Amino acid sequence: MGITLDLRNARSADVHVGRSALAELMSVLHILAEPDHHPEAQRWTRQLGTTFDDSLANEMSALSPLWARLRCRLLFPLALPLDQTLEGELRHLEKLPLDEFVDLCAQGVLGFREAVPPARLLLNDKEAARCYVTQCERRSFRRGALAHDLMASPEDVRARLINFLDRCGGAFFAAEWRAVHDRLEAAAMRFRTEVTRKGLAEVLAGLSPTAVVAGDGSHVRYDKLAIAEIGIGPRQLFLVPSVHVWPHLTIKDERSYPVVLQFAAPEVRAPEQLTLRQLHARLSVLASPGRMELCRHLLGEPITTSELAKRLGLDDTQVSRTLRQLREAGLIESEREGRYVYHRLATSTLLRLGQDVLATIMR
């Protein structure tokens, strides 16, 4: 599995490097929503939590599918110029045509890359909207609730989202953005210089220990759960450094928008990250690559056995057997909610095995 960037047609004019206040805020919200998966930031998140009143905390929870594992494309730069203020990016969201907002938001609410009906169908066909809500409910109760709100009144959801992000700016993010602003500008400048000096493929490959350069430098492949080949040129590539995204490397590929790659600014990356091959050798309890792949799907929001089976292309019996083995090893936790049993990775157990273990699975 993996995502490959095809650089054969890439020109310097197609590649843009810059900061995004909105994308950085999303990375902060992701950490706040999934603190167990970012143990290196736990002290910081506890301090940040004191700035939240109950209404802000409740809204952060309700909207959290948008900055959970796959992160909604709405919250990355949608067009040039980069380096706008948070207020400028929020105004762009406010003016986005409703169909475009619904298309991007609906995919973000669902989260995992599955086919979502286009906005024009969701907004005009009650059966299509009902099926979409059910699809989200299978992922989680929270996703189902937000999907229901989106289908009932997309303009209200947009207003809620913009109001929440604006309130985050006033409550805590404006100060955080001032603190990281210069570091991100330095990272962007360094990246531009290195692209000129070393070439785009080499610099892109340096963003992840899993990256492989192929085709005489014309392709760069990243080890990700998704499978895709993305052509750069004339389609634009936005490269967005982040202080808070580590250990993730986030690639967004919604067809009618520029490709976005959000990466950890060099000074905040860990000095060493294990590759999956090294990790398999160190962990006898996770000796099977198949179990490791399944664990990566279990990281983040709880997931049902049937949803896991669908993603992996296996039958429920095979997945149930593997889940039982992982549960017996203390590596997953299961909990019933209504008709469904949801499973998630026991990150505290993995953390005791080593922070590199958790960081490698989280990539």
From TrEMBL:
Keyword annotations from UniProtKB, A to Z: DNA-binding, Transcription, Transcription regulation
HTH arsR-type domain mapped to chain residues: 271-363
Signal peptide: none
Gene3D superfamilies associated with the record: Winged helix-like DNA-binding domain superfamily/Winged helix DNA-binding domain (1.10.10.10)
InterPro entries linked to this entry: ArsR-like_HTH, DUF5937, HTH_ArsR_DNA-bd_dom, HTH_MetalResp_TranReg, WH-like_DNA-bd_sf, WH_DNA-bd_sf
Protein's UniProt keywords contain Ubl conjugation: no
Keyword Transcription tagged: yes
Pfam families: DUF5937 (PF19361), HTH_20 (PF12840)
PANTHER family associated with the record: TRANSCRIPTIONAL REGULATOR, ARSR FAMILY (PTHR33154), TRANSCRIPTIONAL REPRESSOR SDPR (PTHR33154:SF33)
Protein name stated in the entry: Helix-turn-helix domain-containing protein
